């Protein structure tokens, strides 16, 4: 699967991807057991969903063993970027600042997170307009 292709996983598919990103390669049973902790779904439903995800290119499947082992075919960072870009363009009219202000206004960030955000913004500012060295002679 090419990183540039737009993949549109459903909410249930995202739950499975999150499990595989965190746990790594897993059988349907392992994924199903973890999914069952937060929602009720039958084993065959999980199996069918993972087969569909494989067909869509969201999952790799190793079928050399008796129990097929699945892994994520998309990187977490790539999916995060796609979801955030879609959210910025759709909900916030293309403004990343509006997204950030909304997120920080509705969720309490820790002091460490705020410092990390400040540092990141400072680095971004330096990339956009690097400080110019003075060339005047005295």
Structural description of this entry:
The chain has helices at residues 11-23, 28-35, 43-56, 76-91, 96-106, 111-128; strands spanning 26-27, 59-62, 69-72. It has 138 residues and is mainly α. The chain folds into two domains: 11-72, Arc Repressor Mutant, subunit A (Orthogonal Bundle); 76-128, no CATH class. It has a three-stranded antiparallel β-sheet. Helix 2 (28-35) packs across helix 3 (43-56).
| Rg | 21 Å
Low-confidence stretches: none
Per CATH, the architecture of the largest domain is Orthogonal Bundle
Summed up, the domain count is 2
CATH topology of the largest domain, by name, is: Arc Repressor Mutant, subunit A
**Largest sheet data:** 3 strands, antiparallel
Strand order of the largest sheet: 1-3-2
β-strand amount: 5-15%
Could you tell me the number of beta strands?
A: 3
Count of helical regions:
6
Share of helical residues: 55-70%
Task: Quickly give the structural class.
Answer: mainly alpha
- Give the CATH class of the largest domain: Mainly Alpha
The CATH superfamily of the largest domain is identified as Winged helix-like DNA-binding domain superfamily/Winged helix DNA-binding domain
Give me the strand/helix succession: HEHHEEHHH
Based on Cα principal axes, name the global outline.
Answer: elongated
